[in-house]
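[Discussion] Sanity-checking designs against the backbone

I'm trying to build intuition for which residues belong where. Below is a structure token string of 141 positions. I'd appreciate it if someone posts a full sequence so I can compare it with mine line by line.
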């Protein structure tokens, strides 16, 4: 008979993690995907890039001027995105104004560090999303 695998058997980076998961699934038992998602969330919460992102954000938030600058930039960026998503075309002037504002805002070292760390975490999440979506795509042999 098949011995149930424990959640730690599926730890990220473990050797043959995928093979273990497949053998478990073929044995008629699947680990609850919600448990796996919660485990992934716990691992992400403690990932060095995510910890560094929280620290960078706290540094920006501790400086009232930096926080105001970042909040203002994010608000204007969101407004432009909403406009484009609603089908409206943003004017070249609006785009240029946002680009110039970005140049100024990212001169602030703490904001720039936060932005760079945000991009690292975004890349990490994108990679994880790619792994997950490949698992659910139909075979195209």
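Best answer:
Here's mine. Compare freely.
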């Amino acid at each position: 008979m098949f011995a149930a695998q424990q959640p730690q058997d599926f730890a990220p980076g473990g050797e043959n993690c995928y093979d273990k998961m497949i053998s478990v699934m073929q044995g008629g038992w699947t680990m609850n995907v919600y448990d796996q998602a919660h485990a992934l969330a716990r691992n992400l919460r403690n990932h060095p890039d995510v910890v560094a992102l929280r620290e960078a954000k706290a540094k920006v938030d501790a400086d009232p001027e930096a926080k105001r600058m970042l909040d203002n930039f994010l608000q204007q960026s969101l407004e432009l995105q909403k406009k484009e998503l609603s089908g409206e075309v943003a004017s070249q002037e609006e785009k240029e104004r946002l680009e110039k504002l970005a140049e100024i805002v990212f001169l602030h070292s703490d904001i720039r560090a936060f932005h760079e760390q945000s991009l690292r975490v975004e890349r990490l999440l994108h990679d994880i999303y790619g792994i997950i979506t490949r698992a659910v795509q139909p075979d195209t042999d």
